[in-house]
Amino acid sequence: MPDPQPTIVLVHGAFAESASWNGVLERLGAAYDSVAVANPLRSVAGDAAYVRDVVRGIGGPVVLVGHSYGGMVITQAAAGDTSVRALVYVNAFAPDTGESAMTLSAKFPGSTLADTLVQYPLSTGGNEVAIGQDQYHAQFCADSSDDVAALMARTQRPITEEGLGGKLTGDPAWRSLPSWFVFGDADKNIPAEAHRFMAERANPRGQREVVGGSHAMTVARPSEVAETIIEAVRGVS
Fold it and tell me: d(Cα 160, Cα 106) in Å, to the nearest integer?
């Protein structure tokens, strides 16, 4: 008896939240079982452990989809998990062993994220960072409307410095699982050259580069994102 169609598990990244997948979920519709996870954004290891708990709770095959830092998380979470059928990277980091979001975003010139960040100390130690609200639209979602960008800026989830600097441990899941990549060539957080580099070394089954796409394509270009996810599901079903 064939496996059931995989459940799509959507993992947001830093400076966003689970509702950033709403447009993608609408386009996936009732034909696909899907869930948007509230990524804790505390550490790569801890966030990956949480996503693994979600996958175990689903109890069947899944396709993991990560946006931005969410790519770090799904790469770690999927390692050794036989229920994960594929990985989809949406303007996302696809790290190799020992790489972090911070090192990958700086591997090629072009990221302007660092200049927009504001920092808050944590009572538990260390700091967390967010994008300044007055710079959020231009930096994160330039192809979204003013109203949408203002709402996203106010509801963004900060990430710890530990999360941004956390390194992938063990072999990357994309080395053994089929992967798909979709990203925008106007991403100001992760340079397009870095996206191309990560996709090329992962040897994906599908790769889509969206002209004018910002970092927040889950919000601004949900149709292109959903199409890539559907390709992945059909490719492993």
Answer: 18
Length of the chain: 237
Q: What number of other Cβ atoms are within 10 A of residue 208's Cβ?
A: 18
| Cβ contact 85:56 at 8 Å | no
pLDDT band at 3 (very low <50, low <70, confident <90, very high): confident
DSSP 83-134: TEEEEEEES---PPTT-BHHHHHTSSTT--GGGGEEEEE-TTSSEEEEE-HH
> For residue range 158-217, what is the model confidence (pLDDT) as tens digits?
999 999 999 999 999 999 999 999 999 999 999 999 999 999 999 999 999 999 999 999
Report which of 164, 170, 210, 150 is spatially closest to residue 81, judged by C-alpha positions. Answer: 170
User: What are the angstrom distances between the C-alpha of 162 and each of 23, 24, 71, 127, 132?
Assistant: 30, 29, 16, 8, 19
Single pTM value for the model? 0.97
Start-end of H helices in the chain: 22-28, 44-58, 70-77, 101-105, 133-140, 146-155, 161-165, 192-202, 217-220, 222-236
Q: How many CA atoms lie within 13 A of 206 on its CB side?
A: 21
